[in-house]
Amino acid sequence: MPSITYALPDGSERAVDVPLGQSVMDGSVRNNLPGIVAECGGSCSCATCHVYLDAEYADRFDEPTSEETDLVTFFDGACDRSRLACQLIVNDRCDGVRVVVPDSNG
Amino acid sequence: MRLAALDTGDGVAIDAAVAVVGVGAVPCDALAMRAGLACAQNGGVLVDAEARTSDPRIWAIGDVTVRRHEDTAIRLESIPSAVEQAKQAAASMLGMRVPAPEVPWFWSDQPGLKIKIAGVLAGPYDTVVRGDPDTGSFSLFHHRGPVLVAVETANANADFAAGKRLLTERRAIDPIALGDPDRLLRDLVMAPRAGAA
Questions:
Q1: Which of A90, B45, B107, B185 could form a disulfide with B32 if both were Cys (CB 3.0 to 4.6 A apart)?
Q2: pTM (whole model) above 0.80
Q3: Which of the 8 DSSP states describes residue B11?
Q4: Closest residue of B to A40, CA-based?
Q5: How confident is the model over B141-191, as pLDDT tens digits?
Q6: Can you state the percent helix, strand and coil of chain B, rounding each to 5?
Q7: Could you tell me if A67 lies within 8 Å of chain B, comparing CB atoms?
Q8: What is the CA radius of gyration of chain B?
Q9: Residue B139 and residue B129: Cα distance in Å, rounded?
Protein backbone atom coordinates (compact mmCIF):
# COMPACT_ATOMS: atom_id res chain seq x y z
CA MET A 1 0.00 0.00 0.00
CA PRO A 2 1.56 3.34 -0.99
CA SER A 3 2.71 5.56 1.84
CA ILE A 4 1.75 9.23 1.52
CA THR A 5 3.38 11.87 3.69
CA TYR A 6 1.32 14.86 4.81
CA ALA A 7 3.19 17.99 5.90
CA LEU A 8 0.63 19.47 8.28
CA PRO A 9 -0.18 23.11 9.09
CA ASP A 10 1.47 22.83 12.53
CA GLY A 11 4.78 21.90 10.91
CA SER A 12 4.67 18.19 11.77
CA GLU A 13 4.62 15.37 9.19
CA ARG A 14 2.58 12.17 9.14
CA ALA A 15 3.08 9.21 6.82
CA VAL A 16 -0.09 7.22 6.13
CA ASP A 17 -0.66 4.06 4.06
CA VAL A 18 -3.41 4.85 1.56
CA PRO A 19 -5.11 2.01 -0.36
CA LEU A 20 -4.90 2.06 -4.16
CA GLY A 21 -7.90 3.83 -5.67
CA GLN A 22 -8.50 6.08 -2.68
CA SER A 23 -7.67 9.76 -2.86
CA VAL A 24 -5.06 11.72 -0.97
CA MET A 25 -8.06 13.42 0.68
CA ASP A 26 -9.39 10.01 1.84
CA GLY A 27 -6.02 9.19 3.38
CA SER A 28 -6.16 12.39 5.43
CA VAL A 29 -9.82 12.29 6.46
CA ARG A 30 -9.85 8.57 7.36
CA ASN A 31 -6.83 9.07 9.60
CA ASN A 32 -8.23 12.19 11.19
CA LEU A 33 -5.36 14.40 10.11
CA PRO A 34 -5.95 18.15 10.48
CA GLY A 35 -5.98 20.68 7.64
CA ILE A 36 -8.04 18.92 4.96
CA VAL A 37 -11.70 19.69 5.69
CA ALA A 38 -13.33 18.01 2.68
CA GLU A 39 -16.81 19.40 3.25
CA CYS A 40 -18.20 17.91 0.03
CA GLY A 41 -16.76 14.46 0.55
CA GLY A 42 -14.64 14.50 -2.58
CA SER A 43 -16.76 15.71 -5.51
CA CYS A 44 -14.54 18.63 -6.57
CA SER A 45 -17.15 21.06 -5.24
CA CYS A 46 -16.07 22.64 -2.00
CA ALA A 47 -12.37 23.37 -2.50
CA THR A 48 -11.53 22.66 1.16
CA CYS A 49 -8.86 20.05 0.36
CA HIS A 50 -6.22 22.32 -1.20
CA VAL A 51 -2.72 20.84 -1.03
CA TYR A 52 0.64 21.63 -2.60
CA LEU A 53 2.12 18.75 -4.56
CA ASP A 54 5.88 18.97 -5.00
CA ALA A 55 6.87 19.17 -8.68
CA GLU A 56 8.84 15.92 -8.47
CA TYR A 57 5.59 14.04 -7.76
CA ALA A 58 3.35 15.87 -10.21
CA ASP A 59 3.49 13.12 -12.85
CA ARG A 60 2.48 10.39 -10.37
CA PHE A 61 -1.15 11.50 -10.65
CA ASP A 62 -3.56 12.28 -13.49
CA GLU A 63 -3.44 15.83 -14.78
CA PRO A 64 -6.01 18.16 -13.19
CA THR A 65 -9.29 18.54 -15.04
CA SER A 66 -10.40 22.02 -16.07
CA GLU A 67 -13.07 21.73 -13.35
CA GLU A 68 -10.34 21.42 -10.74
CA THR A 69 -8.10 24.08 -12.26
CA ASP A 70 -11.00 26.53 -12.45
CA LEU A 71 -11.56 26.24 -8.69
CA VAL A 72 -7.92 26.29 -7.67
CA THR A 73 -7.12 29.43 -9.65
CA PHE A 74 -9.10 31.59 -7.24
CA PHE A 75 -7.64 30.27 -3.97
CA ASP A 76 -5.61 32.39 -1.65
CA GLY A 77 -2.08 31.10 -1.99
CA ALA A 78 -2.72 29.16 -5.20
CA CYS A 79 0.37 28.30 -7.24
CA ASP A 80 1.36 25.86 -9.97
CA ARG A 81 1.77 23.13 -7.34
CA SER A 82 -1.79 23.55 -6.06
CA ARG A 83 -4.09 20.54 -6.33
CA LEU A 84 -7.34 19.37 -4.77
CA ALA A 85 -6.51 16.30 -2.68
CA CYS A 86 -9.85 14.68 -3.59
CA GLN A 87 -8.72 14.55 -7.21
CA LEU A 88 -5.36 12.90 -6.43
CA ILE A 89 -6.16 9.21 -6.79
CA VAL A 90 -3.50 6.96 -5.28
CA ASN A 91 -1.97 4.43 -7.69
CA ASP A 92 1.02 2.07 -7.60
CA ARG A 93 3.41 4.90 -8.55
CA CYS A 94 2.52 7.00 -5.50
CA ASP A 95 4.62 5.38 -2.76
CA GLY A 96 6.64 8.09 -1.01
CA VAL A 97 4.65 11.04 -2.36
CA ARG A 98 4.61 14.10 -0.08
CA VAL A 99 1.99 16.83 -0.02
CA VAL A 100 1.97 20.07 1.94
CA VAL A 101 -1.34 20.91 3.62
CA PRO A 102 -1.88 24.68 3.93
CA ASP A 103 -3.54 26.37 6.88
CA SER A 104 -6.22 27.98 4.71
CA ASN A 105 -8.78 25.22 4.08
CA GLY A 106 -11.24 26.79 6.53
CA MET B 1 -43.18 11.78 -20.94
CA ARG B 2 -42.89 15.54 -20.83
CA LEU B 3 -44.63 17.96 -18.55
CA ALA B 4 -47.29 19.98 -20.39
CA ALA B 5 -49.35 21.54 -17.61
CA LEU B 6 -49.95 21.46 -13.88
CA ASP B 7 -53.44 20.70 -12.61
CA THR B 8 -53.83 22.38 -9.24
CA GLY B 9 -56.08 21.17 -6.45
CA ASP B 10 -58.64 23.87 -7.13
CA GLY B 11 -59.09 22.84 -10.74
CA VAL B 12 -56.81 25.37 -12.46
CA ALA B 13 -54.48 24.16 -15.23
CA ILE B 14 -51.19 26.04 -15.56
CA ASP B 15 -49.10 25.63 -18.72
CA ALA B 16 -45.59 24.59 -17.71
CA ALA B 17 -42.60 22.93 -19.35
CA VAL B 18 -40.55 22.50 -16.20
CA ALA B 19 -41.52 21.97 -12.57
CA VAL B 20 -39.10 22.53 -9.72
CA VAL B 21 -40.14 20.67 -6.58
CA GLY B 22 -38.99 22.33 -3.38
CA VAL B 23 -39.76 20.03 -0.47
CA GLY B 24 -38.12 22.09 2.24
CA ALA B 25 -37.73 21.12 5.87
CA VAL B 26 -39.32 21.97 9.19
CA PRO B 27 -36.79 22.73 11.94
CA CYS B 28 -37.12 20.30 14.85
CA ASP B 29 -36.83 22.83 17.66
CA ALA B 30 -39.16 21.27 20.23
CA LEU B 31 -36.28 20.24 22.51
CA ALA B 32 -34.91 23.80 22.45
CA MET B 33 -38.37 25.21 23.19
CA ARG B 34 -38.75 22.88 26.19
CA ALA B 35 -35.34 24.02 27.40
CA GLY B 36 -36.59 27.60 27.28
CA LEU B 37 -34.26 28.68 24.48
CA ALA B 38 -35.32 31.55 22.24
CA CYS B 39 -36.68 30.25 18.94
CA ALA B 40 -37.84 32.04 15.79
CA GLN B 41 -41.57 32.50 15.35
CA ASN B 42 -41.59 30.35 12.24
CA GLY B 43 -39.26 27.76 13.70
CA GLY B 44 -35.55 27.33 14.39
CA VAL B 45 -33.22 27.91 17.34
CA LEU B 46 -31.84 31.46 17.50
CA VAL B 47 -28.03 31.58 17.70
CA ASP B 48 -25.43 34.32 17.52
CA ALA B 49 -22.17 34.53 15.56
CA GLU B 50 -20.58 32.16 18.10
CA ALA B 51 -23.37 29.58 17.64
CA ARG B 52 -24.59 30.36 21.18
CA THR B 53 -28.28 30.08 21.93
CA SER B 54 -30.09 32.48 24.28
CA ASP B 55 -28.60 30.38 27.12
CA PRO B 56 -24.85 31.13 26.99
CA ARG B 57 -24.09 27.61 28.23
CA ILE B 58 -25.84 26.01 25.26
CA TRP B 59 -24.65 26.07 21.65
CA ALA B 60 -26.59 24.92 18.57
CA ILE B 61 -25.44 24.45 14.98
CA GLY B 62 -26.77 23.28 11.65
CA ASP B 63 -30.04 23.43 9.72
CA VAL B 64 -32.11 23.86 12.89
CA THR B 65 -30.55 27.21 13.75
CA VAL B 66 -31.57 30.73 12.76
CA ARG B 67 -28.84 33.34 12.62
CA ARG B 68 -28.13 36.87 11.44
CA HIS B 69 -27.05 37.38 7.88
CA GLU B 70 -26.58 41.05 7.07
CA ASP B 71 -29.95 42.66 7.91
CA THR B 72 -32.01 39.50 8.18
CA ALA B 73 -32.34 36.39 10.30
CA ILE B 74 -32.13 33.25 8.19
CA ARG B 75 -31.96 29.50 8.48
CA LEU B 76 -29.33 28.09 6.12
CA GLU B 77 -29.85 24.49 5.09
CA SER B 78 -26.36 23.64 3.93
CA ILE B 79 -23.28 21.65 4.85
CA PRO B 80 -20.90 24.64 4.59
CA SER B 81 -23.09 26.53 7.08
CA ALA B 82 -23.08 23.65 9.56
CA VAL B 83 -19.31 23.25 9.25
CA GLU B 84 -18.82 27.00 9.73
CA GLN B 85 -20.95 26.92 12.87
CA ALA B 86 -19.02 23.89 14.17
CA LYS B 87 -15.86 26.01 13.97
CA GLN B 88 -17.65 28.91 15.70
CA ALA B 89 -18.97 26.71 18.51
CA ALA B 90 -15.65 24.93 19.08
CA ALA B 91 -13.77 28.24 19.24
CA SER B 92 -16.40 29.73 21.53
CA MET B 93 -16.35 26.77 23.93
CA LEU B 94 -12.56 26.87 24.11
CA GLY B 95 -12.49 30.63 24.61
CA MET B 96 -10.60 31.10 21.34
CA ARG B 97 -11.13 33.77 18.70
CA VAL B 98 -14.24 32.97 16.66
CA PRO B 99 -13.55 32.93 12.90
CA ALA B 100 -14.91 35.76 10.74
CA PRO B 101 -18.30 35.03 9.11
CA GLU B 102 -18.10 33.16 5.80
CA VAL B 103 -20.10 33.80 2.64
CA PRO B 104 -23.02 31.33 2.65
CA TRP B 105 -22.79 28.86 -0.20
CA PHE B 106 -24.52 25.81 -1.52
CA TRP B 107 -23.93 23.05 -4.02
CA SER B 108 -25.93 20.28 -5.59
CA ASP B 109 -24.51 17.60 -7.87
CA GLN B 110 -27.24 16.42 -10.22
CA PRO B 111 -26.69 14.03 -13.16
CA GLY B 112 -24.55 16.01 -15.61
CA LEU B 113 -25.12 19.22 -13.69
CA LYS B 114 -23.04 20.82 -10.97
CA ILE B 115 -25.04 23.63 -9.39
CA LYS B 116 -23.18 25.98 -7.08
CA ILE B 117 -24.46 29.13 -5.42
CA ALA B 118 -22.74 31.71 -3.23
CA GLY B 119 -24.45 34.51 -1.34
CA VAL B 120 -28.10 34.93 -0.36
CA LEU B 121 -30.57 36.66 -2.66
CA ALA B 122 -32.52 39.35 -0.82
CA GLY B 123 -33.72 42.83 -1.58
CA PRO B 124 -33.64 44.42 -5.01
CA TYR B 125 -30.98 43.30 -7.46
CA ASP B 126 -30.11 43.16 -11.14
CA THR B 127 -28.78 40.10 -12.91
CA VAL B 128 -26.00 39.65 -15.46
CA VAL B 129 -25.77 36.37 -17.38
CA ARG B 130 -22.35 34.97 -18.16
CA GLY B 131 -22.22 32.14 -20.69
CA ASP B 132 -24.99 30.61 -22.74
CA PRO B 133 -27.73 28.72 -20.84
CA ASP B 134 -28.36 26.58 -23.95
CA THR B 135 -24.87 25.07 -23.59
CA GLY B 136 -25.64 23.91 -20.03
CA SER B 137 -22.73 25.94 -18.65
CA PHE B 138 -23.59 29.44 -17.46
CA SER B 139 -23.80 31.74 -14.47
CA LEU B 140 -26.05 34.41 -13.06
CA PHE B 141 -24.29 37.25 -11.29
CA HIS B 142 -26.81 39.13 -9.13
CA HIS B 143 -25.71 42.60 -8.11
CA ARG B 144 -26.97 45.80 -6.51
CA GLY B 145 -25.09 48.51 -8.38
CA PRO B 146 -21.39 47.69 -8.14
CA VAL B 147 -21.90 45.25 -5.24
CA LEU B 148 -22.29 41.56 -5.93
CA VAL B 149 -25.21 40.02 -3.96
CA ALA B 150 -25.03 36.39 -5.07
CA VAL B 151 -23.82 34.17 -7.88
CA GLU B 152 -25.64 31.10 -9.19
CA THR B 153 -23.71 28.78 -11.50
CA ALA B 154 -24.35 25.63 -13.52
CA ASN B 155 -21.29 23.68 -14.67
CA ALA B 156 -19.19 26.81 -14.26
CA ASN B 157 -16.67 26.25 -11.48
CA ALA B 158 -14.49 29.23 -12.35
CA ASP B 159 -17.46 31.60 -12.25
CA PHE B 160 -18.44 30.21 -8.86
CA ALA B 161 -14.95 30.48 -7.41
CA ALA B 162 -14.55 34.01 -8.78
CA GLY B 163 -17.97 35.09 -7.49
CA LYS B 164 -17.38 33.63 -4.04
CA ARG B 165 -14.09 35.47 -3.82
CA LEU B 166 -15.74 38.75 -4.86
CA LEU B 167 -18.44 38.24 -2.22
CA THR B 168 -15.84 37.48 0.45
CA GLU B 169 -13.83 40.58 -0.38
CA ARG B 170 -16.96 42.78 -0.80
CA ARG B 171 -15.14 44.51 -3.61
CA ALA B 172 -16.88 46.84 -6.08
CA ILE B 173 -17.26 45.27 -9.53
CA ASP B 174 -18.17 46.30 -13.03
CA PRO B 175 -21.25 44.14 -13.72
CA ILE B 176 -20.97 44.63 -17.47
CA ALA B 177 -17.49 43.14 -17.43
CA LEU B 178 -18.75 40.08 -15.52
CA GLY B 179 -21.15 39.34 -18.36
CA ASP B 180 -18.55 39.85 -21.09
CA PRO B 181 -17.24 36.45 -22.24
CA ASP B 182 -14.13 38.12 -23.65
CA ARG B 183 -13.10 39.35 -20.19
CA LEU B 184 -11.35 36.68 -18.12
CA LEU B 185 -12.69 36.44 -14.58
CA ARG B 186 -9.19 35.73 -13.42
CA ASP B 187 -8.16 39.20 -14.59
CA LEU B 188 -11.24 40.86 -13.09
CA VAL B 189 -11.04 39.16 -9.70
CA MET B 190 -7.36 38.60 -9.09
CA ALA B 191 -6.20 41.99 -10.40
CA PRO B 192 -4.71 44.29 -7.79
CA ARG B 193 -7.27 46.64 -6.29
CA ALA B 194 -7.42 50.12 -7.71
CA GLY B 195 -5.30 52.35 -5.54
CA ALA B 196 -3.49 49.44 -3.92
CA ALA B 197 0.28 49.52 -3.91
A1: B45
A2: yes
A3: S
A4: B79
A5: 999 999 999 999 999 999 999 999 999 998 888 999 999 988 888 888 876
A6: 25, 30, 50
A7: yes
A8: 20
A9: 6
